[in-house]
C-alpha cells in the first residue's frame, strides 16, 4: 500500500539518504544538499498554501508511511498546453521494482483530474527506460517528442484524464 501526502520538513533527511545517481541524473540535475532540500520543501509548502502550480508529494510506503520517493504535478510548465499537467516522479533505490511508481502515478492522475486537468503528460529522456515503462504501465501513450529550451530531447507520454476509471478509488 502507498499513500501520497505533501512533502514536509521532516522528509529532508530521508530524501537526502535516498538520493542516488539515477535520481540526480533523471530528476534533480545535481546532488542535493540539506540547504537545497530544505529550501525546496519550503517552496513546496508555499505552493500548497497559495494554490500555486506545483503540487509535490511524498510517496509513502507501508503502514509506517516510510518516504519511498517523490512525485509532483506541475499545472504550468514548459511544453504544456492549457488543461495539461506534467507528472514527474522518482523512487529511492530500495523501493524500485515494486510497482510503487506506477501506483503513485495513478493516484496523482486522480488528483489532477479532480483539480480540473484534462490530460497528464510525462516527459522522459529517451535513455530513461525505467521511467518510460512506468508511463506505459500507468496508461500513458506515446505523444511525440520535443526539445527543451536547453536542447534536451524528451519523449512525451500522455493520458486523457477524462477517460473512464481515472477518478476511481483514491487508494492503491
Automatic annotation (TrEMBL):
Pfam families: Acetyltransf_3. Residues 2-164 form the N-acetyltransferase domain. It comes from the Bacteria. This is N-acetyltransferase domain-containing protein.
